[in-house]
Amino acid sequence: MTQIRSQGLHHNLVLADGSSWVIAAGDEESISVISELCNAMQLAMTPGAGEAPHHGIVRHLRVQFDTLNPEGSPATCYAPLPSESNGFVVCALHPSARDHAPSAKLRRLSLIIARDAQTRGAVLLHGALAERNGNGVILAAPSGTGKTTASNRFPAPWNSLSDDATLVVMDRQGNYWAHPWPTWSRFLWGRSGGSWKVQNAVPLKGIFFLAQALEDRVERVGYGQAVTLLVHCAAQVSQLMERGLGKEESRTLRLNRFNNLCALTQVVPVHVLQISLSGTFWQEIERVLEGNDREKT
Predict the structure, then answer these.
(1) In a 3-state reduction of DSSP, which class is residue 52?
(2) pTM, whole model, 2 decimals?
(3) pLDDT one-digit tens code per residue, 99-131
(4) Domains of the chain, first to last
(5) Strands 165-170 and 176-181, how do they pair?
């Protein structure tokens, strides 16, 4: 583990839950993978001894290729939780044909971070993140049902921060923050991908599940329905966290995620957003947010 600390170059990722990651390459071959990951997440490269400029929970992720077992199962990339190994994780990627796709490697590395955050109340959701006046909302829906299209329709002063996934974390005061998360499918088949300001978290003020309709309308859903919707929403992007885990570990992971979703639902309002093809659905969201603000005052 001391080798991780001695890396000449590393990248830092700081999350709103008070944790940070020091991400470094463990060999020459993994440098390009780390570079692609950190470019996608817009993380700065820092020279030094591998210590994050942060006083909270510090994690270290070292990535390297398993040249001794090149055809090994890629599941071994799903390393133990940092909390089980003094804050350090070594992820061994395999240079086999099955594991060669850049999107697969990048997704696996990002899930290590998301899985660790889940132990502190976080959830990775299949939803687009948008921001207005410093506050965030998530538009949730299965793939191909309009998240990206809706994200692109937001007018100023709205800003679309991500169009496919969002990491929701809980700070020490019990408030929820939303980090934009990369759309890893954009890296399939050699495509250029993209980049997202992952560290730019915003306070999460609402979650809206999209449903196609003739006119725009918002309906608040009850606690039970909200949890059910969120369970499916989280499973769509989190199920790969279970690869390489035993039966009991997988059960613990799913139970932890369910408990986190229940806690999230008690704090962040969940709605169904009926959305038309040409309406101004964002005005419906704004009315909800303004109503929430009036309730607090």
Answers:
(1) coil
(2) 0.90
(3) 456 788 888 899 999 999 999 999 999 999 999
(4) 2-118 (no CATH), 123-296 (3.90.228.20)
(5) antiparallel
